[in-house]
TrEMBL record:
It comes from Arabis alpina. Catalyzes the reversible isomerization of alpha-D-glucose 1-phosphate to alpha-D-glucose 6-phosphate. The mechanism proceeds via the intermediate compound alpha-D-glucose 1,6-bisphosphate. This enzyme participates in both the breakdown and synthesis of glucose. This is phosphoglucomutase (alpha-D-glucose-1,6-bisphosphate-dependent). Monomer. Its cofactor is Mg(2+). Residues 17-164, 199-309, 318-421 form the Alpha-D-phosphohexomutase alpha/beta/alpha domain. Keywords: Carbohydrate metabolism, Glucose metabolism, Isomerase, Magnesium, Metal-binding, Phosphoprotein.
Length: 584
C-alpha cells in the first residue's frame, strides 16, 4: 500500500472568499492563484465539527467544468491530510448536483460507510473554460447546501487562515476508472473510491417514478421527445435514463456529451441560451423544417435546473411546479399517499398558491435559494417545490433536480394519455395540459427581465430608489395611472422578509415588492449567483381568473406592467441599458 506524509503549508488570507447563494463562484484564473482553493477547502474543514472531517466519508465531484480534475486532486490531498477516511468520486469527476445529494443520502459503501458531506465543483449555469467560471460549494449530511451558519463560519475562517496540512506526495488518482485506491497516512488508512456517476441516482429515480408507464409513452409512435443537456453533466445521466431505461430514440438526445467548456455555450436552460432545443421545438426565429417533437427539455451545467417545452410551446417554471403539484398524487407513485405541503420562492408566480388553496395543501413562500426548502423538507412540511429560475424538485433529495422534473412531466403525460396511447384518440399534449390547468386555476402571466453585469453601484442606487418610493405610494400610483390607466393601483409595497418556521431564523432584504390591487406583482432583486458586476432581476406577474382571457400572448398581456416597472425603476437611466440581457 502506498503511504503518504503530511506537510503543513503556511498561507495567508485571500480577500473575497465569501460564499454566495450557492457557494464560491469565481473566474478560473482566480481559483488558480496559489493557495486559493486550498484556503477555501481548509476553511471549510475548520468550520465543520471534527467528526465530519476525521474518519469521515466525503463526496467530491461536479459538473466536469474546466479545472475540475485539478481541483479534485487538490481536495483529495487536503482531505487525506485532514484525517478524512475516504473520498468518493464520480467517474471522471462527474456527478450532477442532484446526484451528489442522492449519493450523500442513499449510497452505502461496501463496508457500510455513509457520506457526511460533499464538495460540489460547479458554477451551475455559468459558462466554463479557462477564461470562464469555476465554483465550489459544500453540502451537508442531509444532502443540502450548507446553511448560512456554516458558510458564515467558512468565510470567517478564510479571513484568518494561516496554514493548511496537505499530503503533497499522495499520487494522483486516476478518476477515469471505477475502483478503489488505498493509501496509508500518519492517521491510518485513506481510500479514494471512484464509482459510476449514474447508478445511485438511477436507482432513486426508479423508486419514485413508474418507469414502465413512462416507457410506454416514450416508445409510442404518437409521442416524440428531445433532451438537451447543453454539454453539461446531465449528459452523463440522459443516455442511461432516457434511452437505456426508458426506450427513447438515441437521436432524441442533444448535446449530451459533457464538455469542460460546455461546447463554448452558456449552459442555462432558458429560451435565450438553449438555442438548439428551442429551434427544434419550433420556437426559434427560423423554421427548422419538419415537425417538432411533442416534448422537449433542457438542463443547466450541473443538471439541477430544467426547462420544459411542448411542441411550439413554452412552460414557465412557475406554471411547471404548479402543474406538477396539481397532478403529483395521481401520476407519480412516490406521492400517492398525498403531499405534505408545497413551496415556492418569493419571485415565483402565485400559480402554486392557487393549487395549494384549491387542494387544501400547506403552502410556504420562501426567499430565493434552495436551502430554504431544505429546512421545510427536513421537518416533513413540504413535498414539492419550485422556483421561477428553472428549478423544480421534491423531498426525495435536498437540491433541485432537472431530470426529476422531466420524469415528473413524462409521468403526467403518461397518466393523461393512458387511454389515447392504447386507442385512436389524439395525444393530450403539453400545451393541452397547461391550457387545461389555466382553465381550472386561472393563469399567471409572467416574465422576468435580467440586466446582467451592470455597474454594481448603479444597481445599488436603483434598488435604493425603489425602496424609497415604497413610502410614497400615492406618488407611485400617479405615475402608474399617468402611464397606463388600465393598470391597477399599487396596494402595498415592501422588502420581503422571511422567518423560517422551522429554525426561527429571519432573512431580511430578500427582494423589493410592489403588490397591486388585482394581485399583479412587480419584484426587483439583485442576483446572488453572478461572478462579475451586478445582475438586476425584474419579475413581472399578472393574474387572470377569467378562463376566456387566459389565452393571450404573455408579452401583450404584460406590456403595460413592464412599461410601469421600467419607468418606475428608471432602469435605463441607472443601467444605461435600453433592453435586458435576457428575457425569460
Ligand atoms: C441558484 C439557487 C436557486 C436560485 C437561483 C437564482 O440556482 O440554487 O435557489 O433561485 O440560484 O439565484 P439568483 O440570486 O441569481 O437569482
Ligand atoms: Zn445549476
Amino acid at each position: 500500500m502506498v503511504s503518504f506524509k503530511v506537510s503543513v503549508v503556511s498561507t495567508s488570507p485571500i480577500d473575497g472568499q465569501k460564499p454566495g447563494t450557492s457557494g464560491l463562484r469565481k473566474k478560473v484564473k482566480v481559483f488558480k492563484q496559489p493557495n486559493y482553493l486550498e484556503n477555501f477547502v481548509q476553511a471549510t474543514f475548520n468550520a465543520l465539527t471534527p467528526e465530519k472531517v476525521k474518519g469521515a466519508t466525503l463526496v467530491v465531484s461536479g459538473d466536469g467544468r474546466y479545472y475540475s480534475e485539478e481541483a479534485i486532486q487538490i481536495i483529495i490531498k487536503l482531505a487525506a491530510a485532514n484525517g478524512v477516511r475516504r473520498v468518493w468520486v464520480g467517474q471522471n469527476g462527474l456527478l450532477s448536483t442532484p446526484a451528489v445529494s442522492a449519493v450523500i443520502r442513499e449510497r452505502v459503501g461496501d463496508d457500510g460507510s455513509k457520506a457526511t458531506g460533499a464538495f460540489i465543483l460547479t458554477a451551475s449555469h455559468n459558462p466554463g473554460g479557462p477564461t470562464e467560471d469555476f465554483g465550489i460549494k459544500y453540502n451537508m449530511e442531509n444532502g443540502g447546501p450548507a446553511p448560512e451558519s456554516i458558510t458564515d463560519k467558512i468565510y470567517e475562517n478564510t479571513k484568518t487562515i494561516k496554514e493548511y496540512p496537505i499530503a503533497k506526495d499522495l499520487p494522483s488518482v486516476d478518476i477515469s476508472v471505477v475502483g478503489k485506491s488505498s493509501f496509508e497516512g500518519p492517521e491510518g488508512k485513506f481510500d479514494v473510491e471512484v464509482f459510476d456517476s449514474a447508478d445511485d441516482y438511477v436507482k432513486l429515480m426508479k423508486s419514485i417514478f413508474d418507469f414502465e408507464t413512462i416507457k410506454k409513452l416514450l416508445s409510442s409512435p404518437k409521442f416524440s421527445f428531445c433532451y438537451d443537456a447543453m454539454h453539461g453533466v446531465a449528459g452523463a445521466y440522459a443516455h442511461r435514463i432516457f434511452v437505456k431505461e426508458l426506450g427513447a430514440q438515441e437521436n432524441s438526445l442533444l448535446n449530451c456529451t459533457p464538455k469542460e467548456d460546455f461546447g463554448g455555450g452558456h449552459p442555462d436552460p432558458n429560451l435565450t441560451y438553449a438555442k438548439e432545443l428551442v429551434e427544434r421545438m419550433g420556437l426559434g426565429k427560423t423554421d427548422s423544417g419538419g415537425e417538432p417533437p411533442e416534448f422537449g427539455a433542457a438542463a443547466d451545467g450541473d443538471a439541477d435546473r430544467n426547462m420544459i417545452l411542448g411542441k411550439r410551446f413554452f412552460v414557465t417554471p412557475s406554471d411547471s411546479v404548479a402543474i406538477i403539484a396539481a397532478n403529483a398524487v395521481a401520476a407519480i407513485p412516490y406521492f400517492s399517499s398525498g403531499l405534505k405541503g408545497v413551496a415556492r420562492s418569493m419571485p415565483t408566480s402565485a400559480a402554486l398558491d392557487v393549487v395549494a388553496k384549491n387542494l387544501g395543501l400547506k403552502f410556504f413562500e420562501v426567499p430565493t435559494g434552495w436551502k430554504f426548502f431544505g429546512n421545510l423538507m427536513d421537518a416533513g412540511m413540504c413535498s414539492v417545490c419550485g422556483e421561477e429560475s428553472f428549478g423544480t424538485g421534491s423531498d426525495h433529495i435536498r437540491e433541485k433536480d432537472g431530470i426529476w422534473a422531466v420524469l415528473a412531466w413524462l409521468s403526467i403525460l403518461a397518466h393523461k394519455n393512458k387511454q389515447s396511447l392504447e386507442g385512436s384518440a389524439n395525444l393530450v399534449t403539453v400545451e393541452d395540459i397547461v391550457r387545461q390547468h389555466w382553465a381550472t386555476y386561472g393563469r399567471h402571466y409572467y416574465t422576468r427581465y435580467d440586466y446582467e453585469n451592470v455597474d454594481a453601484a448603479a444597481a445599488k442606487e436603483l434598488m435604493g430608489l425603489l425602496v424609497k418610493l415604497q413610502s410614497s405610494l400615492p406618488e407611485v400610483n400617479k405615475l402608474v395611472k399617468g402611464l397606463h390607466p388600465e393598470v391597477a393601483n399599487v396596494a402595498s409595497a415592501d422588502e420581503f422578509e422571511y422567518k423560517d418556521p422551522v429554525d426561527g431564523s429571519v432573512s431580511k432584504h430578500q427582494g423589493i415588492r410592489y403588490l397591486f390591487e388585482d394581485g399583479s406583482r412587480l419584484v426587483f432583486r439583485l442576483s446572488g449567483t453572478g461572478s462579475e458586476g451586478a445582475t438586476i432581476r425584474l419579475y413581472i406577474e399578472q393574474y387572470e381568473k377569467d378562463a376566456s382571457k387566459t389565452g393571450r400572448e404573455s408579452k401583450d398581456a404584460l406590456s403595460p406592467l413592464v412599461d410601469v416597472a421600467l419607468k418606475l425603476s428608471k432602469m435605463q437611466e441607472f443601467t444605461g441599458r435600453s433592453a435586458p440581457t435576457v428575457i425569460t
